Amino acid sequence: MIWNEHFESMDREELRKKQGERLKEMVDRIYYNVPFYRKKLQEIGMEPGDIKGIDDLRHLPFTTKQDLRDNYPFGLFAVPLSEIVRVHASSGTTGRPTVVGYTRRDINLWSEVMARTLYAAGASKEDIVQIAYGYGLFTGGLGVHYGTEKVGATVIPISGGNTKKQIQLIKDFKSTVLACTPSYALYLAEAMEDEGISPKDLDLRVGIFGAEPWTENMRKEIEDRLSIKAIDIYGLSEVIGPGVSSECEQQNGLHVFEDHFVPEIIDPETQKVLPEGETGELVFTTLTKEALPLLRYRTRDLTVLNYEKCECGRTSVRMQKCLGRSDDMLIIRGVNVFPSQVESVLLEMSETQPHYLLIVDRVNNLDVLEVWVEVNSQFFSDEIRKLESLTARIKGNLESTLGIGVKAKLVEPKTIERSMGKSKRVIDKRQL
Ligand code: DLL
Fold first, then answer.
1. In the structure, which protein residues have their CB atom closer than 6 angstroms to any atom of ligand 1?
2. Which of 117, 236, 300 to mutate to test the pocket of ligand 1 (most atoms within 8 A of CB)?
3. Which of 120, 128, 265, 396 could form a disulfide with 280 if both were Cys (CB 3.0 to 4.6 A apart)?
4. Whether residue 380 sits in one domain with residue 303
5. Number of independent structural domains in the chain
6. 377 and 421 share a domain?
7. In angstroms, what is the span from residue 75 Cα to ligand 1's centroid?
8. Which of 212, 247, 329 to mutate to test the pocket of ligand 1 (most atoms within 8 A of CB)?
9. Which of these three, 268, 299, 327, is where a domain ends?
10. Ligand 1, atom 4: closest residue by C-alpha
11. What is d(CA 68, CA 210) in angstroms, rounded to the nearest whole number?
């Protein structure tokens, strides 16, 4: 089932022509509306009229998460705030979130690409979609929500967590599609087994899972235990949210919605575009977004592109499942976490040293984060009560910065191994 046959199965030459036209318009808009981009383009002596086609993309400057942070919160918006109808945000590398904005047309675009995502997964108007991605600043909940409504399926906007209620609604409302992170899907499967519920008795048949890396083994496990087809969906807030690419029922690579988001693969070190078939860092240019158009945005996700036509009939390029990143970002329960966020919290507290270790594990299919923190010797007390209250404060500060539950463990000064080279701040025990 193809939602937008015209754009999803367009002749590739025709598509490239369309992309070129859209790129020209986009560069025009950012040149005149975003001082940051005007400056960058002027620095390389480029004017909007210089763009002749999509091949010119590789001569244009990159945009990074740091650029968004430097222009926090709304500095890269290309329209006045009066045109912005929504903002979302994801964690940045410091306490400041990465803020993204949408005009009314951007929301329509987002609904369109999410409708394509649902259709590609085999869902339609007849389905009942239980949305267990978080609603709020995170783009998962509302992104899937608008796409589901556009398709005309029934939305159950339950949001994340509340596992007992999730199971009850899956049973009582006869949900057919489950939308959540893959790790939560597995957690739900286990909770159902504990309640003695067999997936065979449920109506669930498809899962649209993403927001964090997951392997083929994990897919098999989810499919077996929930008795569904598990579809990988990918996206990032900066580009639009979910709806950047998604698998079709072939489950053989994620189709990129290329008429709106153009992917490139670069070598993260040299920043040169890599030849087709090579693995590297994924970069996206948004062609049609109004509020926050981005030129060659470096996602830090590692993957490879495949331009062969898919058996489903779509001609759009497919990206392989993303399993790695070229930076140190961790994804814990779908939330982006940078070790440097922990560092900044510890540096703000007088009792602690910026020596720390993040230990991530997956217990009963749920990610858990433990943070070991070195305490200054004068604060390392024999009094249990004092230590407990310090632990609680550190835990509270970490949780409010990271936005997820944390177990804090205080250790004596000089306990955490010092390194001569690049320090090892993270032990990830999850087997992905
Ligand atoms: O996670 C958007 C999303 C919501 C995608 C729901 C899919 C479903 P951010 O919070 O900005 O946005 O995080 C983006 O998450 O750069 C990847 O590293 C990772 N990521 C997202 N989807 C996948 C996936 C949302 N299917 C970051 N596989 C991205 C692997 C993924 N990693």
1. 90, 133, 139-140, 210-213, 232-237, 241-242, 299, 301, 322, 325, 331, 336
2. 236
3. 265
4. no
5. 2
6. yes
7. 23
8. 212
9. 327
10. 140
11. 23
Among residues 327, 345, 369, the one where a domain terminates is 327
23 found inside a domain: no
N- to C-terminal Cα separation, the chain:
31
| Segment 183-238, tens digit of pLDDT | 889 889 989 999 999 999 999 999 999 998 888 888 998 999 999 999 999 999 99
List the structure tokens of 98.
């990465």
Clarify whether residues 256 and 403 are in a common domain: no
pLDDT (tens digit per residue) in 303-341: 999 999 999 999 999 999 997 888 888 999 888 898 878
The CATH number of the domain holding residue 401 is: 3.30.300.30
Q: Which atom of ligand 1 is nearest to the CA of 244?
A: 5
426 CA to centre of ligand 1 in angstroms: 20
Q: What is the pTM of this model?
A: 0.88
For 422, the domain range is: 335-428
In a domain, 11, yes or no: no
Q: Is 34 a domain residue? A: no
Those residues with Cβ within 8 angstroms of residue 207's Cβ, 6 or more apart along the chain or in another chain = 177, 178, 179, 180, 182, 185, 222, 226, 228, 229, 230, 231
